[in-house]
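Exercise 7. Given the encoded structure of a 276-residue chain, write a plausible sequence.
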């Protein structure tokens, strides 16, 4: 029905809290979008397209509150169209490499339980900049900042929100590209693969930090999926790739089944363990 899109303030939101944050949440934001306390709540990063948008669509269909973040929400046409139809879909501006903005967003939703935090935002990085013979340090730092550090900072900022929820799940999108145990290894895309290997360890560490709070920190992988990233960087995989909707349906089922018995291994969209 209505949507709310927030942009970063020119000064820290913390200066206005708690009064401003409580006012925003109590009134449902500037345009009336709201969190229904009787619904489960999911936060999805990188929601403007592909797998992130499919997660938003899935959880809307399940009747959840959805906090959908995008780096440039004013350009997220499909996401905004959905926000115009669903009252419990809130669109938030977030560049996951902006630590201050992460903290501001967490503060704005202080006291709001988040059942599932999905760290979906990710980049492949410049192909040439991670090719052997032309390795670029800037590209390396960009990929690691988005794919590894950002999920750690999101978990850190939103741990209290997740701990206050009924489901208590933090999920990061891994990939078979990060496996070091595969019998064959393709060339190219070194930084992307390294980042997914590092993400696996990062989430194991976060899981150890949060275990005593009852939070399950999990890794799920979509398998080859038809997204802009795959089409631009691994076009040879497109013919055998899943649609975003099929991958998300499988991953959502895996997420639903997560419990205290989860052992930290990356799980594929079909429930199998990803080699790592």
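Solution.
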């Amino acid at each position: 029905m209505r949507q709310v899109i927030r942009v970063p303030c020119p000064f820290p939101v913390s200066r206005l809290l708690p009064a401003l944050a409580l006012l925003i949440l109590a009134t449902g934001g500037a345009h009336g979008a709201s969190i229904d306390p009787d619904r489960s709540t999911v936060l999805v990063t990188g929601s403007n397209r592909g797998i992130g948008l499919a997660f938003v669509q899935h959880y809307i269909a399940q009747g959840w509150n959805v906090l959908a973040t995008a780096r440039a929400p004013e350009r997220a046409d499909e996401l905004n169209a959905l926000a115009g139809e669903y009252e419990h879909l809130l669109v938030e501006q977030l560049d996951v490499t902006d630590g201050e903005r992460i903290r501001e967003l967490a503060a704005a939703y202080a006291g709001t339980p988040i059942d599932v935090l999905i760290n979906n935002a990710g980049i492949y990085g410049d192909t040439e900049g991670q090719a052997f013979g032309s390795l670029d340090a800037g590209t390396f730092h960009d990929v690691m900042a988005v794919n590894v550090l950002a999920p750690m900072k999101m978990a850190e900022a939103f741990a209290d929100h997740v701990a206050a929820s009924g489901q208590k799940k933090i999920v990061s999108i891994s990939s078979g590209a990060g496996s070091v145990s595969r019998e064959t290894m393709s060339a190219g895309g070194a930084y992307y693969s390294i980042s997914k290997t590092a993400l696996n360890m990062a989430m194991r560490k976060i899981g150890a930090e949060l275990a005593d709070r009852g939070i399950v920190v999990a890794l799920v992988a979509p398998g080859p999926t038809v997204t802009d990233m795959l089409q631009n960087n691994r076009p040879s995989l497109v013919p055998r790739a899943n649609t975003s909707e099929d991958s998300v349906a499988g991953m959502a089922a895996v997420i639903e089944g997560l419990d205290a018995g989860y052992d930290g291994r990356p799980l594929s969209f079909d429930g199998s363990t990803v080699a790592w």
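Remark. The two ends are 44 Å apart (CA to CA). Students should compare their own answers with the one above.
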